[in-house]
Design brief:
Shape of chain B: globular
Number of strands of chain B: 11
Radius of gyration of chain B: 20 Å
Largest interface: A-C, 62 and 58 residues
Chains: A mainly alpha, B alpha/beta, C mainly alpha
Strand content of chain A: under 5%
Bound molecules: sodium ion
Helix content of chain B: 40-55%
Oligomer: heterotrimer
Number of helices of chain A: 23
Shape of chain A: globular
Largest sheet of chain B: 6 strands, mixed
Strand order of the largest sheet of chain B: 7-6-8-5-9-11
Order of helices and strands of chain A: HHHHHHHHHHHHHHHHHHHHHHH
Distance between the termini of chain B: 56 Å
Strand content of chain B: 15-25%
Chain lengths: 444, 338, 193
């Protein structure tokens, strides 16, 4: 079999097995194993590929950010900080049509600045926002769709595990990647708010929801300034610790994760919102998140290493150079690949697999790697919302604990948000200044 | 084997965890591979079809060693400094600072040792590899810092990043050595995880680290051979003699080319650092002598630990220093004669 | 996916085989112990990084080897938790078609599930084939991380955790397979249900 045949058939097999429900790490690992066995005609090398990936992939300092930001997210969730942010956002936005949806987006954008993963965002707001929105008559599909869509902000607005992974792969500065993510993150949040307004006015049957008159009776709708500041102070403290720590040049992103988790723990204890038993459950949950995500990263690494053994990245680079594509064509191809891979792989796997393929040709186009990173992360995160593998949707499904909400409902609800992401991505590609503008300010 | 005059195509996979951002990978692609291809083209009997898997496509930076051992790649650049446990012999230049700033001499001398002391090649053979040559990719280690460092006392309480055994060059001066990878230093300096780094000018200028560590202490600590070019033993055995010969010859040319490039880049890199606001302080000879004499005798410790494992540490050290003395290097401390 | 779907915890029904039940309890115990170690390890990781980060501000002399310990901790945490994560149905899968078959075509689903569990077992057998010799090498040849004379830590304990983690995950797959073959379902009622 030629490398290209191996590449194509491996993709077909992976799609088949993931669709039919084989454990994804098992599918990626076994297909990589068989692939290398065929290419090298040597079973020992194929075994070595798997064991090398297992021992060598995640033993890097930066991966510690994943459990740490997950831990911080879970503690803030338990401490009710997510709920507080959401109530404040509700208080501000409930008068608007679809206001609880916009509030979810706004709360997610704020929460995103204290968490590094979309998983934390998705699980917090599934518990906080979905019941609230359903209570006020919003359609289930819309409610979970808003949560899924806006959870993506968690990985775009810094701190962000995906920007960290991209920075590792391309040897860029994590701090610069974070700064570059700020404006695109805010832009995406605004686009989501616009989408919700549009849907609320033009497709009300999809959105549902009561008008503000029915909501005004809620406690949070008549929030006083004391309540307001009591609810936002913990967030401000956490943002100061995490983002202030990173941009103040005091701590690394990983350390910001650890300090953020500790600060959240202290806040939770002060708020008397956390028993010892709760905390233990949170640690166990963090462990499960770390195990499932990092093991997925390990198996994705097996697959990308197999492609490397097949020589596909080199062939692909040569192919692109010989095609003499224009920058626009190149980016179109790139985005299409991101989206296709996004249907079956998680964001970090996509970055790990596809970025090395393109890295070789970027220089000849004079492409800025920071900008390319933002494009990559936004493009790959569209996949968080697309079936069959959409991590954000999975997290919602496993958190919501309601058999009447199917995975399909969540994917359908998230679809308009995925489309909006694509439009924002096109804008980000057309105007690199949106990603790179802030980098020119020396105070950062 | 080639009576019909047809060209036989051989597949080879070259690996390194580092990307083309690194000088030795650029030269691997732009110099080493073409040099092999050219030699083979001269007779036309064989042609290598290369799979160039750099930048972590198959292995990460610390995984080249096991990747070549297990056959994930056929040939590659092992960063030996990461493997103090598996390749202690390769650390000799790291154990002997203030001896030379000539990377070409270091690399040639080590190849000389590899010819003289079978233990060096045996170490690689134990890990399923054939040693081809080594590579010195830096002219000399220097100190790059956030705050001005001009004397040894300035190291008190600082966290200094570097890769390996050279962290011991700071022992006794109140600094803490933090081992880490080149690619993480910028951020670590910026955030204060590190106060200084021990690196060479080309890598600092290339990664714009002068932005976060503008002060340079030019102390000319010494050049080292941090790389080993090796091949997977099974793949190597299958190669025809002519191909083996071509690769070996090209490897030596590649070794010398790396040293040449390391020197050539150094001057320009200092200029770039200076042009971007860097402040270079050249340490005077008295300061260097004080430094060399106050640090522990890392070389003796290194040799003793090898002797304990039944390896010829002392003889290697003497041989290395003898070569340096014969080459009239400005040696500050005679590490082998204490 | 419910917490108890993947064959977690002892069945509320009377066990058909006492030996199998005892083996199952033993595995559950092991998974729970490893899970507890992994969970505690996360807390230690957080504390370790916080102490290091604040320590360098307040003490003149920072700590050696934190980088190496953090790197090993991540691997340790993942493989301590992998078995329990699998037991709790947290190993990533796209379950739309799978659950549809389970509900609508249980006969077909039984074959499908059997094949998938066998593939999972195969995968972990392959990983272990590579990982066990690596662990033995690391132990016998004294591999370490860090630099001699500064800070070193042996590599074998973390290799042992990798092997243990893969082994219990493999056993968990075997148990699910056993349940599918014996009872035609991987579904277990949660305790008290
Ligand atoms: Na974030
Ligand atoms: Na997807």
């Amino acid at each position: 079999m030629s490398p290209i045949e191996i590449g194509v058939s491996s993709v077909v097999l992976i799609v088949f097995f993931i669709y039919t429900g084989l454990y994804i790490p098992v599918a990626l690992g076994l297909i990589s194993f068989v692939g290398v066995w065929i290419i090298r005609d040597n079973v020992d090398i194929a075994v070595a590929l798997l064991s090398e990936s297992v021992s060598d992939t995640i033993s890097a300092l930066t991966f510690a950010a994943i459990p740490l930001f997950a831990l911080m997210g879970l503690i803030t969730q338990k401490a009710g900080i997510g709920r507080d942010v959401y109530e404040v956002a509700n208080f501000i936005f409930y008068r608007i049509r679809g206001g609880l949806g916009i509030a979810t987006v706004a709360a997610n954008a704020i929460f995103a600045s204290i968490t590094g993963s979309s998983i934390a965002s998705a699980s917090v707001f599934t518990k906080v926002a979905v019941p609230e929105m359903r209570r006020f008559g919003f359609k289930t599909r819309f409610s979970v769709g808003v949560v899924a869509g806006s959870s993506v902000l968690g990985m775009l607005i810094p701190p962000s595990n995906m920007l960290i992974i991209y920075a590792i792969v391309t040897e860029q500065s994590i701090g610069q990647m974070f700064i570059a993510g700020i404006v695109p993150g805010i832009l995406l949040a605004i686009a989501y708010a616009g989408l919700i307004l549009f849907l609320a006015y033009f497709v009300p049957r999809f959105v549902g929801g009561q008008q503000s008159a029915g909501i005004a009776a809620e406690d949070w709708a008549s929030m006083n300034w004391f309540d307001f500041s009591a609810k936002v102070t913990p967030v401000i403290i956490l943002v100061l610790v995490v983002l202030g720590g990173i941009y103040g040049g005091i701590v690394t992103p990983v350390e910001a994760g650890a300090l953020g988790a500790l600060t959240a723990l202290i806040i939770a204890i002060v708020k008397r919102a956390l028993s010892l038993r709760d905390f233990w459950e949170i640690l166990v949950e963090t462990g499960h998140i770390a195990a499932s995500i990092l093991f997925l990263i390990i198996s994705a690494s097996m697959y990308s290493r197999m492609l490397g053994v097949a020589g596909l990245p080199t062939l692909f680079g040569d192919f692109l150079i010989h095609m003499e594509l224009t920058l626009v064509t190149l980016m179109v191809i790139y985005v299409i690949m991101l989206i296709l891979l996004g249907t079956i792989l998680d964001t970090s796997s996509i970055i790990l697999i596809i970025v090395p393929l393109f890295l070789g040709v970027l220089d000849s186009y004079g492409i800025d790697l920071v900008w390319f990173g933002i494009v990559t992360v936004v493009g790959a995160e569209i996949g968080l919302l697309t079936p069959p593998l959409g991590i954000s949707c999975f997290v919602i499904k496993s958190t919501i604990d309601d058999p009447s909400v199917s995975l399909a409902d969540i994917f359908i609800g998230a679809l308009p948000f995925a489309v909006t992401m694509l439009l924002v991505l096109i804008v980000l590609i057309a105007y690199p200044v949106l990603s790179l503008g802030l980098l020119n300010f020396s105070f950062l | 084997t080639n009576t019909a005059g047809a060209t036989e195509t051989i597949k080879m996979t070259a690996i390194d965890g580092y990307s083309t951002k690194s000088m030795w990978v650029r030269e691997f692609i732009g110099f080493f591979i073409p040099a092999i291809d050219k030699k083979l083209a001269a007779t036309g009997n064989y042609k290598i079809q290369w799979n160039q898997a750099f930048g972590g496509q198959i292995v990460k930076v610390r995984g080249v060693m096991s990747g070549l051992q297990k056959g994930l790649g056929d040939i590659g650049v092992v960063t030996a400094v990461f493997h103090g446990d598996k390749l202690p012999l390769q650390q000799i230049a790291f154990a002997t600072p203030f001896v030379t700033t000539d990377p070409g001499l270091v690399a040639r001398t080590f190849d000389g040792l590899a010819g003289k002391f079978p233990a060096i090649k045996q170490a690689f053979a134990k890990f399923g590899q054939v040693y081809l040559t080594n590579g010195a990719v830096l002219d000399s280690y220097q100190i790059f810092s956030k705050k001005s460092i001009t004397k040894l006392g300035d190291f008190q309480g600082l966290k200094v990043g570097s890769a390996g055994l050279n962290l011991r060059w700071l022992q006794g001066f109140g600094a803490a050595g933090v081992s880490g990878s080149l690619v993480t230093y910028y951020n670590k300096l910026k955030t204060g995880v590190l106060d200084a780094i021990m690196l060479w000018p080309e890598s600092v200028a290339g990664r714009k680290m002068y932005e976060v560590a503008p002060y340079v202490l030019k102390a000319n600590l010494g050049s080292v051979n941090s790389k080993a070019i090796t091949a997977n033993a099974k793949s190597w055995k299958k190669l025809p003699g002519e191909v083996q010969k071509a690769i070996r010859a090209a490897a030596v040319e590649y070794r010398d080319r790396l040293a040449e490039q390391a020197l050539a880049k150094a001057a320009g890199s200092f200029a770039k650092i200076k042009a971007n606001g860097g402040k270079i302080h050249t340490m005077d000879q008295a300061g260097r002598v004080e430094w060399a004499n106050k640090m522990p005798n890392v070389a003796k410790g290194w040799a003793a630990s090898l002797e304990k494992k039944g390896l010829p540490g002392n003889a290697m050290l003497t041989s290395y220093m003898d070569t340096m003395r014969a080459a009239k290097q400005p040696i500050i401390r005679q590490w082998d004669k204490e | 996916m419910s917490e108890y779907e993947q064959g977690a915890l002892p069945s509320s029904g009377a066990p058909k085989s006492l030996i199998a039940a005892k083996l199952g309890l033993g595995l559950d115990g092991l998974l729970s112990v490893m899970n507890s170690i992994g969970s505690g390890w996360i807390f230690l990781l957080m504390v370790m990084i916080c102490v290091d980060a604040t320590g360098r501000t307040f003490f003149a002399h920072p700590f050696h080897g934190v980088n190496e310990l953090v790197e090993m901790s991540i691997v340790g945490i993942v493989f301590m938790q992998l078995g329990d994560a699998t037991r709790r149905g947290r190993l990533t899968r796209s379950d739309g078609f799978y659950n549809l078959m389970r509900a609508r075509a249980p006969g077909f689903w039984r074959y499908q599930a059997t094949i998938f569990e066998l593939l999972g077992i195969t995968f972990f057998v392959i990983v272990l084939t590579g990982a066990i010799p690596e662990m033995i090498d690391a132990y016998q040849l004294d591999y370490f991380v860090g630099e001699e004379g500064l800070f070193t830590f042996p590599e074998w304990p973390i290799k042992l955790v990798i092997v243990l983690g893969c082994l219990v995950t493999l056993l968990q797959f075997v148990r699910i397979l056993w349940r599918i073959v014996r009872t035609g379902s991987a579904q277990i009622s949660p305790p008290g249900a």
